[in-house]
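WARN no homologs supplied; continuing
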Amino acid sequence: MAAPTSMRALLLLVVSACLATAFLQPHFSSFEGRSIHSRSIRRGGLIVAAADGVYGESSEELEKLRFLTPELVEAVANEFGTPTYVYDMSTLTASAKQALAFPNAFGLTVRYAMKASPNAAILKLFNSLGLHVDASSGYEIKRAMRAGVPPSHISLSSQELPSDFDEYVAQGVQINACSISQLKRFGQKCPGGKVGLRFNPGVGSGGTGKTNVGGPSSAFGIWHELLPEVKAVVATHDLEVVRIHTHIGSGSDPAVWQNVATLSLDLVREFPKVMTLNLGGGYKVGRMSYEASTDLLKIGAPVQKKFEDFAQETGRKLHLEVEPGTFLVANAGALVCAIQDKTTTSAHTFLKLDAGMTEVLRPSLYGAQHPLIVIPKDKTRAEQTASYVVVGHCCESGDLLTPAPGEADTIAERKMTVADIGDLVVVEGSGAYCAGMSTKNYNSFPEAPEVMYASGGIFHLIRRRQTLDQTLQNELDLPASALS
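OK structure emitted
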């Protein structure tokens, strides 16, 4: 029996309050005692921070390298050029093992959200460690299978259901219908088949609106109030609903996850043959030193208890699925680049990198913060600091590496080692949603290479730098007659 409407309303109210607190607090508090209140001045399309305390600085301490050393950074630049992505195999392995230890009552499947970083080398590593795959498109399904992932280990939850999805189903790929129309299409092509349903439970979570994939302002999943229509489509095509999927966005509040689990279990109650509940991913990872990361044991424990209570009530021992992406790869990746220019105005000194939104789009898109570590050619500058605005190489005012936190259109200064043209810079936290979510080829800049740092201090090239010919290979000439 479904929970009473009043109970659902109460749960939604509680979750909304938790989300509001979690979302608003960073904007009205300070980072380790440093105020982030400021005056803002709009100049052109950007807002310039004129702060009492500099945006993005948590303390006088500079950000540090994670798995690289200055010597290794220089070795990467010398061997592979700049910019180059570097992934650390030991960090990837450790993160996978952490995810596999997620608390569960009756079994767990960890699915890597491959959109975070889809290189075949990463897919093969995670496959060898026992992780399955969460795909977001038909193309990702093909990419995962080419990397050796068994079709039965792949689940598709997509904004665009591919036209040939039934061929994937025949191979063993699991499909989660993410809208009523997708469910109808599934029923038409696979009558009597087994299907998962991705619901929007009515709440969401995320550091910004752009990373929130739940609630009434999100297009992801089937709105929970459409349940009667869902049941009608299921009955029409004699479908068997075997899996419920919910995913609300990026967050780390245990109370939010606990309440979303409650709402999701209410949906499971509506389908007596469901034996799997997928709670998605979105586990917050701190890239900056002052940012906290999700404690999987902490958020998983109350969810495990919910599953145990559900089993006692219904007799159904549900299998849990989770879909981490950022959690697995964010801090296992770094971008090695170089300062190719430096310029000064009456307001700021700008460092211009030979990388930018073509490699790391997140700051321009979300106002996301990434540690920026200078490796100076002149080691006598190693202990000297200055404040800079760091920008990319694109002819685009929004190509900014140092926006104010959560404010992509506000430029901010960052305290760094004194830097000059020719110095190297490491953009840490570049393992997730960077190589896989870049604006490569804007201004015709080539796709950067990717390198895996393995045991024994060996660098393996896992993607070559793109050539101009490769960038242009699909272009076709107009016939001469069209130009006359």
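The chain is about 30% helix and 25% strand.
OK
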